[in-house]
Amino acid sequence: MTMKDVLDELSAARRKMGTATLPAGEAYTMELRRRYNAHLDDVWDAITNTERLSRWMKPVTGDLRLGGTFELDGGEHGEILRCEPPRLLRVSWMFGPGADEWPGTSEVEVRLSPGSAGDTEFELVHAAAVGEPMFPTYGPGAGGVGWDLHLLTLAGFLGDGEVLDHEEFRASPAGREFSRRSAAAWGEAHLAGGGEPSQVAAAVEATTAFYQPAGDA
């Protein structure tokens, strides 16, 4: 992808912070909406077919059916909570040491709806318990930049089958600019959601530094 392609894809998404209630209690949400120039059934297959999901996201194993469990190569894992083909998928989303000791603290839901021109409206909502440890430092960028990167990869995969190497992309000029702008965009969503300006600014700075270590600049 060219720099223009990458930034066009970044601007194609709408970001929002909201609130939700999880089994563990009050939660905040990171919400992403965008359109993909692909048929609803194709997008659904890309997010639920083990072989295709492994190509654009991460290698995945498990019993991918309602009530089954999954695990991604990066350590993220959970249970299939709802599955209503081809429009709705909800999973629990656990990650990090000790995550399994705090069930019900993180869920991801994807909703698909058909567009008017054979395209697909894609909505992803990641709800995380208010007490989870990453938010005070990174704000919604803790997960939001990663989801932006995955949805960028999905766009290429649905378009021409291109699959980004995430590590290689992050180290490239286009990838560094993508991460910087994604962190800033989530900062704007955080402010719009009522975040305190100084906290938001610190979170954007921390998120940018995490995705762009000083040695990579």
TrEMBL record:
Residue span, Activator of Hsp90 ATPase homologue 1/2-like C-terminal domain: 38-151
Pfam families given in the database record: AHSA1 (PF08327)
Record-stated family: Belongs to the AHA1 family.
Protein name, entry field: Activator of Hsp90 ATPase homologue 1/2-like C-terminal domain-containing protein
